[in-house]
Amino acid sequence: MRKGVASNNSQDETICNRRKANIKFEDLPEDVQCTILSKLPLKEVVRTSVLSSEWRYLWVNCPNLCFDSAEISGHKRCMKKFIDNVNVVLHKCHGDVVEALKVKFGFHTTLADHVNSWISFAASSRLKVVAFDLEPIDGWFRDDRYIFPFELLNNESISCLQSIQLSFVSLKPPFQFGGFPNLRKLDLSMVHVTRKDLEDTLSSCCNIEWLSLDRCHLRDELKVDTPLFHLHHLRILRCEFTKIQFHAVNLDTFVYIGDLRPIVLNHSRKLNDVSISLCKAIFQHAVAALLNSLPSMKHLTFHVLFLRIEMQELSNNPNKFSHLRNLQLFMNIHLKDADKILFLVSFLRATPLIETLEVDFNSAGLGFVDVGPTRQNLERYEYSHLKSACITGYVGARGQVEFILHVVENAPALDVLTVYTTTRELHEHAAAQVAKCQKHSPTLKICIV
Hints:
By secondary structure, the chain is an alpha/beta fold. 27% of the residues lie in helices and 24% in strands.
């Protein structure tokens, strides 16, 4: 009896497995098809149409539509082919299936009607993600940007939008524009917009989590006083702002590339990662600005392309980076500033809880410079939490050696010191100089690379 039952179960499993093997992709529920197709690039999805006559139009269920003309030259015929392809795909796609539309191509004002029709498709399909990465065909000096057609959007389509990327666009929102209430991500690049329109738009994006502004030149201050409680990631790159101010209490990441400007993020007490890249600055002024604007950050990457260091007495700054744990410095030191490397100590003294330190000296041409202040000019200051230090760009300058010795002598918990060199001669020089560190910390692990 038991054998018969086992035999029947085995037969049922065999039949079931055969049925599963006969299931075709087109027999799967539409939502399952969409999930599978969403994992593939649109180009690969379209290619499946040649595999079977029954698969000819499966690609119309693809939820993510991405069009990139990067491989097409600027020839009019090629551009016409690209536009025709986009129009054909959008005409055949199911609007209730598509969730994202991304288009990247060279823009000219004569193509505005085509872009308008694609915006209309996005609005009627109630898309969640819209990206129009446009660029001028005839060079970056042109200023005839695409005027974004707010009039093609209704309240329903605006409410559906969760991510917007716009490049080389002019934004002129209508009077009393209510904003994008459910927008999570906004990426604006080379966008022409007035200060008031930008501030009003950002203030109305109450649920925004990720914001990036790249080469958006207001030549004025950007001040968003409305609390953005959900904003976690903020990037401001190469924008001509005279001042930046946001009220974002839950901000986690801040990235800034540009000139030294006042940055006010005093409400952002949860800042974790901060990356600051300045074109040019006086070192002491830059450090003071960071202390005033970003006192709560935990991890800092700091880079100044053209760095100046003013000669003045070293002193302890009363203000502190009281939460900073990890510090990464990229220092472009010129020959004339080789004797000022020890002024980095003023930065370290403002980081009482620092645990890891990385300093990259872009100091080509300094050679074995033997000038400048020594540790005897410095008062002792204990970096009690520092466990790891890494020095890159070692060229044998006395300031570098003195700085390394100062760190080791004042960091009782230091476990690892790593020094990167570029030549055998520098490797031997570093090994001889850094060996002095063992006298102060016999258990310290030293790596000369």
